[in-house]
From TrEMBL:
Keywords: DNA-binding, Transcription, Transcription regulation. The keyword DNA-binding applies. Residues 4-67 form the HTH asnC-type domain. The keyword Transcription applies. Pfam families: AsnC_trans_reg (PF01037), HTH_AsnC-type (PF13404). It comes from the Bacteria. Transmembrane segments: none annotated. This is Lrp/AsnC family transcriptional regulator. SMART domains: HTH_ASNC.
Amino acid sequence: MEKLDSIDRQILRILENDAKAVAKSIADQLGMTKTPVYERIKRLETEGFIKNYKAVLDTTKIEPSITVFSFVSLDAQKGSLMDNFLENVALFNEVTECYVVGGEFDFLLKITVKNPDAYYEFAKTRIATLPNIGAVKSAFVLNEAKNSQHFPLL
């Protein structure tokens, strides 16, 4: 895998801000021709620097929902038990992000549901019924001050 040079980083910045930007537009912004920019984008995709392209949805226009961050600790932190938890959580559509964390808890889940009652039902019937669950503590998002998937490219 090649190292990223400054042009690669500029291309990544542009695509991160506008995934629909075409090679011609990027080339114009960088003062280059379309072909080398297109080849760089293909290389960045092939080498896994670009995983995929996504649309950022305005969820407030789709339907009412709430975001909940749940901190989960397991009774035992054996590798197979942690893997089992991750496999189960991956099946839950309500879980939009899952992180293995250090400290007081083992996992941080970002959960999106319609309302607090829906979260209660989800926590009671899905999370709490998983094997090896020690504790679940939750924080409800009251206001989304910043939501950015941007990676700070230096």
